[in-house]
Amino acid sequence: MPKKSTKPRSGHRTRSNGQDTPVKKPATRRPGIKKQDLQRFRSLVTTMRDETVSELDSLTESLMPEVVAVGEQPDEPLTSVQTVLMIQRQRKLLNLLEASLVRIAQGSYGTCSSCGNPIEMGRLEAIPYTTLCVECGKGKQE
């Protein structure tokens, strides 16, 4: 039977009882978004969400049949197909905004969902609901 080595393996330490145990590495903390910037983004995303909900309500209401006198036409109505497409777009935006608020609450806002690197502040200011950094977002639409 081969003799056991008394030297601990790399990344391990030997306890007083002779057992080899892994050494816990300290968590490397990457600098994130400053607290004041995070509050600003939370406010921006919340405002965008509220505006989107309001627009969705208006669009949905516009689909309701309007009582019009016989022979009259409403002033420049959107076709119902256009309205439905706009509602779909606004719902998608609303989902992205809601997901952003969740990421803000969880502390993962501003981190690329693809590569894990920080998303540039300029990109977050332009598209506050983005989940991808510039590099990962190239060629992809969000």
Annotation keywords:
142 residues; 4 helices
Task: Tell me about this structure.
With 142 residues, this protein is mainly alpha-helical. Helices cover 46% and strands 4% of the residues. The protein has 4 helices and 2 strands, in the order ββαααα. Strands 1-2 form a two-stranded antiparallel sheet. It is elongated. The N and C termini lie far apart (61 Å). The relative contact order is 0.12.
How would you concisely characterize the structure shown here?
The protein contains 4 helices and 2 strands, in the order E-E-H-H-H-H. The chain has 142 residues and is mainly alpha-helical. Helix 1 (35-62) packs antiparallel against helix 2 (80-106).
- The assembly state of the depicted protein chains is single chain
H and E string: EEHHHH
> What is the overall number of helices?
4
| Major pleated sheet | 2 strands, antiparallel
> What's the gyration radius in Å?
27 Å
Low-confidence stretches: 23-30
Topology:
Layout: E1 12-14, E2 20-22, H1 35-62, H2 80-106, H3 121-126, H4 134-137
Antiparallel strand pairs: 1-2
